[in-house]
Amino acid sequence: MDFHKDTFLILTYMGLWKPRNLSKWKSISYNLYSAAVISMMITYGLSRFINIVVASKNMAQFIFLTVLGSGLKGCNLFFYCSKFMNILETVSRPPFQCQSAEESAVHHQFSREVRRISRYSIMYLMIAAPYYGIDAFVTALPTRKLPLECWLPYDYSSLFSWSFSSVYLILGMFWAIIFNGVYNSLSFEMMMQVVLQVKILKIRLRNMINTLHNAELKNNSSEVNRLLHQLERQSLHHCVQYHNAVLRLSKDIKSMLSTIILIQYSVTSITLCTTVYLMTKTPVFSTNFFSFSFYFVFIFHQIYILCYAGHRTRMEFDSIGEVLYTANWFTLSEPSKQSIKFIMINAAKPFVFTCGGILKLDIDALKNVSITQFNSTQVKSTDYSFTDVMIFFQTLQLAYSIYNIL
Predict the structure, then answer these.
(1) pTM of the predicted protein model
(2) How far apart are CA 109 and CA 103, in angstroms?
(3) Which end of the chain, C or N, has fewer beta carbons within 10 A?
C-alpha cells in the first residue's frame, strides 16, 4: 500500500472507495454519500455530453470530451474493484515481499519517487479545478448564465434555480476532474508497481549469482559443492517462479487498464489538438488563454505519465538479460546455465503495455500525440499568439526527442 496510500485515501474521501470494517450505520451513510457523489458526476457528464452534441458547431465544446473518460474510468474502477484489491494483496505476499535490506531500500526509494509524482499531479488539480470553477462562476454572475455550458431539462432563469444549478455544476466538474486525475495516478502507480518488481528481480538474480560465485571460489570439497549445487537449484527455482509471478502481475494490470487507456489516448488526442488550435486563436495573457493553458497541462500530463510508465516498464524488462549476462554466470553448473539461458530468452521478449492491443504505450506514443498537435496547427497566421504557442510546442517536441535518445 506504500504506492497507493494517498490515492486510495482521496478516493475514500470522494466516496468512491469504501473502507473496510465499517459499522452498520457508517456503512449505510457512506453508501448514501457514494450514491450522491456518483449521481452528481453522472448528471454533470450527461449534461456536458448532450450540450456537446447539440452545440457541435462550437469547437470549444470538444475539449470537454474528457467528461466521457471520467465516466468510463468510474465504471472501470467499480468493475475491477475486486481485481484491484487482489493485486494489492498479491504484492504484499511472497514472492513479492522484500527479502533483504537492499530490496527494502530500493522499494522505499522507488515508492517515494512514484508517490511524489502522484502528489504533484493531484496538487495541480487541486489548484487548477477551483481556479477554473471560480473564474467561470465570476464571469457568469453578471449575466446570470450558467458558469459551464451544459444542457439542463428545466428553466433556470430564477435566482434560486440559477444558484443551485451553478453550484451543482461546479461541484460536479470539480469531482469529475479530481477523480479523472486520481484514477490516472492510480493507473500510473499500478504500472510502476511492475517496474519495482522487475528491479527487485534483477537484484535477486545478481545477488544469487554473485553469492554462488564467491562460495565456489572459497570451497573445493565435494560435499560443500553438492550443497552449493542444491542451493543453486533452489535459488534459481525461486527466481524463475518470481519472474513468472511478475509476468502474471504485468498481464493482470495490462488487462485491467488496456481498454480504458486506449479510450483515454483517443480522447486526449482530440482534446489536445482542439485546445492547441483554440490557444492559437486566443491572445496571449488573456483569461481564456490561461484557462486553455491550465486545461492543456492537465490533459497532457495525464497521458504523459502513462506513456512514461509504459516506457520505464519496457526498459526494465529489457535490462534483465543485461544483468544476467554481466554477472558471473559462467561459474554456475550446466543445468543452472540452462536455466539462466531460459530466463534470458524470456526476457528477450519485451513486455510492453498497450492501448487495447493496438498502440504501444511508450515515449513514441507521446511523440505521436505531439506531432499530431503540430500538424493540426500548421496554418498561416500573423497573430503573435500563434507564433508563441508554436514555439512552446516545438520546444516540447525537442525535449521529448532528446529524452528518447537518452
Answers:
(1) 0.83
(2) 10
(3) C
